[in-house]
Amino acid sequence: MLKITREEREMSGRILKLTGPIILQNLLAAFVTSADVIMLNFVGQEHISAVSLAAQYASVLFMVLYGLSTGVTMLSAQYFGKGDMRAIDAVEGIALRFSVGVSLLFSLAALAVPRLMMRVFTPDPQLIEIGAEYLRNVSFAYLCWGLTEVYLAALRSVGRVGISTALNTVAFTLNILLNAVFIFGLFGAPKLGAAGVALATSISRGVELVLALVVSARSKDIKLKLSYMFMRSKLLFRDFLKMAMPATLNDVSWGLAFSMYSVIIGQFLGTDMVAANSFTSLVRTFGTVLCFSVASGGGIRLGQIMGKGRMAEAEKCASILMKLTVLSGIIGGLIVLASMPFVLRFANLTETGRGFLKGMLLINTYYVMGQAVNTTLIAGVFRAGGDSRFGFICDTIDMWLYAVPLGFLAAAVLKLPPMWVYFLLCTDEFVKWPWVIGHYRSKKWLRNITRENAV
Predict the structure, then answer these.
(1) Helix ranges (DSSP H) in 347-427
(2) Nearest Cα to 396, choosing from 247, 238, 281, 241?
């Protein structure tokens, strides 16, 4: 399966050309998260746990924005292949209507009811206070994020992944530097701990938005304009709702369900498991950087090919993506395994928490393969052809009718040992493999979704 011909090597090179900057972008995002955990490790386990729980709201918002951005990429990549730039402006405007509204809602909630938001995840008063302060300070970042994410998706869809990566590089680097300043009180700044992480995020996201506006002003075609929100195209709006909204609902449904894992761990398994899960999530992020990047870059390339109507080439491209995905999943598992000695030595956890961490990392050495295959197919291959409905149905059934109820049953009713509960939660990716792989082989996703005179 992994044997690659000369033609496939050439096509792999074109995919990796798009994937390379996305890998860097995802690595930088992972470094920001790791910097949060590493620096808060010197402040205390409570700050790590509180930020880990409060950040679940950012994870949910990310899933919303990622779904909308996927919709932008899904349609724009094919229209770019077709050569219709006006349609790309309209698609960006449609996505901005949703992203601005949702991010504004999250921002207002973080300002107005942060303690109530924290009580969803934990009954611990100390974690609630620390997390509430974090949410208040990060609220501005939510609003900036809603604007930049859609614009960067539009840039990526036309192959300008380098610009997107450059903006993220500046924002993430600034975030890491400001983390140190505000967490530890450097250069006369206040020593804020967990709240400093949130303040650093808000400032860096604000700078990223300003830079995006500068890029937009100098761009000849792909721009960040709120006026795009008022462009009217019934055909594109209908297509966006039909294709992008299932993708958004898919990511929101999956993100909320994955956040329920944190609820289960926080409410029933104790602070040692919460802290251990923070480190595990960080390591898993690095383990999945390559495979998630392959899915994103490959999906863009696949969409551009289908937009040109070259279906035989698109089928070959998808086959190569699967080979690259298996390879990236293996590499991801090895990264998790290789990191274990360093993470266990570094983690400032109790002895019990350290034991949990070791077991959770071992489970994730193979769990990343499940994520790699499903993400590439559902979020990459299927969506490139406008097929987002299958992923929404598949993930919703898998997470809400299987994984989440199983987790609550194991933790709250059967009161199984914490590691058994975690193991059962981590079966979710493999349960859906037969349906996901079967849908890939059916080729129902292989479609040109562009229209003539869309705007």
Answers:
(1) 351-375, 383-384, 389-398, 404-408, 418-425
(2) 247
Q: Is there a contact between 50 and 131 (Cβ–Cβ < 8 Å)?
A: yes
Question: What is the spatial distance between Cα 292 and Cα 295, in angstroms, rounded to a whole number?
Answer: 5
3-state secondary structure of 194: helix
Q: For the beta carbon of residue 455, count every other beta carbon within 10 angstroms.
A: 17
Reported as a single tens digit per residue, the pLDDT across 433-443 is 999 999 999 99
Please choose, from the candidates 369, 379, 370, the residue with its C-alpha nearest in 3D space to the C-alpha of residue 295. 379
Rounded CA separation 329/362 (Å): 15
Name the band, by pLDDT with cuts 50, 70 and 90, for residue 29: confident
Task: Output the six-digit token pair for 112.
Answer: 């107005």
CB atoms within 10 A of CB 297: 26
Q: What gap in Å lies between CA 392 and CA 371, rounded to an integer? A: 15
Nearest Cα to Cα of residue 375 among 314, 441, 433, 301: 433
Specify the pTM.
Answer: 0.77
d(Cα 264, Cα 404) in Å, to the nearest integer? 9
Contact status, residue 136 vs residue 127, Cβ threshold 8 Å: no
